[in-house]
């Protein structure tokens, strides 16, 4: 007897039925093998999400960060000029507001603007600092101009 079928039900034979009249009960929907396959597939999907993602996610993130840094390296020129313009405009605006209101700007404002000025000066002087810094750190930069 098959495990997936329940025990046969016996009835009296009716017209057109042979013999004893015992016929097997209808099989239940969904066999054990199909249920096992669905459970195995679900477990494999959960395992892939749980175990593979921690290995692949850092590689994906690092690859994207590398692309973003490359893009920023190419945007260094115009982004630096944009930042210099923003800092200069902020200094002009602070000066205009303090003269108009006849009040000295807050110390925190002057401190943060001074910090912004130092940072933008470092960014603007990066082409001058880069060779020395790379040499000090032992980083070899490929010369892409000689193709």
Question: Please, could you describe this protein's structure?
Answer:
- The structure is a single chain.
- The chain is mainly alpha-helical.
- Helix content is 67%, strand content 3%.
- The protein has helices at residues 32-74, 76-101, 107-124, 126-137; strands at residues 9-10, 22-23.
- The N and C termini lie far apart (79 Å).
- The relative contact order is 0.05.
Low-confidence stretches: none
> Tally of extended strands?
2
Order of helices and strands: EEHHHH
Q: How many alpha or pi helices? A: 4
Query: In oligomeric terms, what are we looking at?
Result: single chain
Largest sheet: 2 strands, antiparallel
What general outline do the C-alpha atoms trace? elongated
Structural class by SSE content: mainly alpha
β-strand percent reads: under 5%
What distance lies between the first and last C-alpha atoms, to the nearest angstrom? 79 Å
- Percent of residues in helices comes to 55-70%
Physical arrangement of strands within the biggest beta sheet: 1-2
Rounded to the nearest angstrom, the radius of gyration is 38 Å
Mean pLDDT: 77
